[in-house]
Batch of 3 targets.
Target 1
Amino acid sequence: MQRVLSTHLLSNHRLTGAMLQRIWQAGIPAVELFCARQHLDYRNPSQIAELGYWFRDSELKVHSVHAPMYSDEVWGRSGPQSVLSITETSLPRRIETVNEIKRAIEMAEVIPFRYLIQHIGVAHEEYDDRRADAAFTALEELAVFARQRGVEILLENIPNAYSSANRLVQFLASTHLALHFVFDVGHANMDEGVDMAYSIMQERIRSTHVHDNDGRNDVHLVPMVSQGGTVDWPRTMRLLASRRDQYPLVLELREPAGGAGHPIDIAKESFMRLESLIQ
């Protein structure tokens, strides 16, 4: 399985060519760019142009881009108006959210990528038919906008009432949207379980998010390196390897606490340990 590292690992720092070069030197051939404005400011033409020049001269590829979750630079702490959710029922707010996501998709004109990773709603959101309809309307518009730029939208299983494996499949069946999935191992571990979620989603999986947790909190631990994880990695890697040509192995990690070593070196170690389970 191809290695891909999400820059979520470095999302508290401005993304630079030096960071990307270190990822390439660690033997990781592709990245998922994480849209957080303190890290990758999709609104900033200078940063996008700078990264575009860097990628044109590099062998490192961009597999995917994670859509922004907040419009501010402090993880939504500036207030509820900064939260970006396509389930927003207020039309003006939803238009703002869709336009913000479109700005991220427009990066493909400078930095080509194949997939945009999109959430339906926010963590722990309860189900509401009106909000599900709002998500359909937003995704219908975003899917057309993305296709015009060679990008496909992937829906992610996250811990809320819209985005369990079952709910995602039901959503696509009822809306007839021709979309696929990113399978998030850590989120599945917090919901119906990795085995069950994978069995439901497997036909439509086009990418992955691989991280660990305690089964309750979405802490994005480093698989087979961090303490406190509860995912059964030998079993999970056998599942993922059963369709290894269908998607890459994408590590989406939180930066470990200070003193644990360089984050990219820790990610490399995790890749090696995971891969050893299926060799």
Target 2
Amino acid sequence: MSEANWYVVHTYSGYENKVKANIEKTIENRKLQDQILEVTVPMQDVVEVKNGSKKQVQKKMFPGYVLINMVMNDDTWYVVRNTRGVTGFVGPGSKPVPLTPEEMKPLGIKEPEVVIDFEVGDTISVKSGVWEGTVGDITKIDPHKQMVTINVDMFGRETPVEISFTEIKKMDF
């Protein structure tokens, strides 16, 4: 499975919350929770002065835009692109460009911190995916990509294979 990234979606101005609600409803209906992880309309607190009194209100940081954390594939692209009120992804042509970590920092979006209970040398069992049922020793851990590398026996040779954190289970001996 590919890695999830943050993408910017352009909407009709004033339709940001409606687009967010529509995408969330579609995620639920099509069971895409594992591919479209989060939909957000970035807000900021602003102090407005009206008739001499100060009032704190929330305003959209980017009117006309919605941020989506998703795995980009044909299904997710189609769902988002064909949501009522969406005019397109931000990026050249029809190819969406994910936000970089530097671009996400001022938005207050942080990468989730992953706590793992295994280390290099531990024996794990693959509980789902193509390698389901395979047992192997961890040779490398990549917390940023949320992947571990194990060696599997393929045609009589040790072959390194990357497995997602969500697909493994630590073996208890």
Target 3
Amino acid sequence: MLILEEITNIDMLQPIKTIEISKIIKETTTKGSAPLLTYGIDDNTYFVKTTAQKNPSAEIINELLCAYFAQCWSLHVPEFCLATISKETVDNYVQDMGKLSGFYSPDFYENTLFGSKQIWSATELDQFINISNKRELKLFSNPVDFLKIGAFDLWVGNKDRRPENPNVLIGNETGLFDFHPIDHAAAFAYLTNYKEVREVLLHIEPKNCILSTILAKTISSFVTHEDIENLKNDINDCISNTIENLDFIFDQVPDSWGLSKKSKVHLKAFFSDKARNKTIIEHFLSYLK
């Protein structure tokens, strides 16, 4: 039997911190964006994201919302924050390293950004050898977290986490390996108008879900009937925890990012839909058979 972690107490959610960035180390390259690797004044290293989207700034709103949602699901999401960068810090980088790419507007630093703390000694999932036996499974603090990430994606409609692009880091900060889901900019099926969020648009085809990967199928092969029942109850509780915290989470989004009151009302009603939530859990469980 696999051991499921207890759900994080919903009272443990903390207001989001704002970290001032003291130095830009470099601009990194990913398929969808160009986050900045930076130092904060707290001596930690952060990947900082912005977006060209305005009213709303959907990509970084998605990052913030899903980071909190993942906490409610007891997933090992990297620590996150709001980030500010001064003109002087940008000028110092440009002077030393050359200009930033066209992804960044000349005045991007005037906006509040989203920061995600760097996980040291982490590797991309696609560089990791698949689990092939129970002994390797014991190297992970909670291997079924990978399955929960798949269920999470079904719930938030993250269509960018695919078998060929899992957006999951494997870190060992606890002495055992943990799965760290990253990059939620494409949640809500890339929609920028949250009032348009509908199940038919968020639906993820099996071939595009990480639950269809060999790794997920291997982990599922070690799941007992008792584990499945526990997973079902766990995910149901995760959803309930998130819904109970939605108002608090919405309040963490900076007003300047443009998440409207009507959007919040619509998203709360959407995620509170009991029929949809039941269907999501059933859809998830179908991958484990």
